[in-house]
Every structure is written in C-alpha cells, then in structure tokens.
Amino acid sequence: MSTVADKxxxxxxxxxxxxxxxxxLVYVDFWSAVKLSFLGAVALAIVTMVSFFLIxxxxxxxxxxxxxxxxxxxxxxxxxxxxxxxxxxxxxxFAAVVSILNLIVFTVLGxxxxxxxxxxxxxxxxxxxxxxxx
Length: 134
Fold this sequence. Notes:
Blueprint: H1 4-13, E1 20-25, H2 30-62, H3 64-75, H4 82-85, H5 88-124, E2 127-132
Antiparallel strand pairs: 1-2
Helix pairs in contact: 2-5
C-alpha cells in the first residue's frame, strides 16, 4: 500500500525538464514603485485605523481607561479628566492623523528607495534573479 510520503518521494526524485533562466533587475520604474508603495500605505492606514478602534474598545471594556482616569484625578485633584481627553472621537481623529502621515511617509519612502536602487545599479550591475519553467 502506497502512502502519501511514498508518492511525494517519487515526485521529488523525478527530473523536471524545465529550463532555468537568470535575469538581472537593472531598473525599477519610478511611478510603479510610487503606486505600489501608495497601495501598501493605504493597507497600512486601514490596519492602523482598525487597530486603534479595537484597542480603544478593549481598554474601555476592561475598565483601564476608568482606572487611569481615577488615578490622574487623584494626582491632579480632579483638575484633569482623561475621559474627556480620550473619547472615541479623539482617538479616531488621532488615528486618522497617524494614518495620513504614514501614507505620505511610506509613499515618499517607496519613491526614494526606487531612486536609490536605480543609482546603485549603475555601480553594482543589478540584482541577479533566477527563473525556472516547469
């Protein structure tokens, strides 16, 4: 009786007739890098907004915010109230500001990395990448 391991062993010993090709990556298109880094930054912005919301909900549900509000109230003789400073609208506004700044920084960083790579290729000759067809 043949097991799955025996079938995989047969497949691994079989020679493939694929042709191997080695190519050099000598240029990264600037606008493609900007578009790709922008899409990655948008995904990161969405993750940031959702994570801020979920963390706020966890802090609210566990009573951590109420405990911190009591603690700060004892220290400052109730002159400062964290509950008025750290409501859901304030937290989400802060998350939006952080997301927008990350969006700008990551998009610019993608463009800078593409430019640096294009300059470095002139010295190093590019990145060697191997491909094999099955």
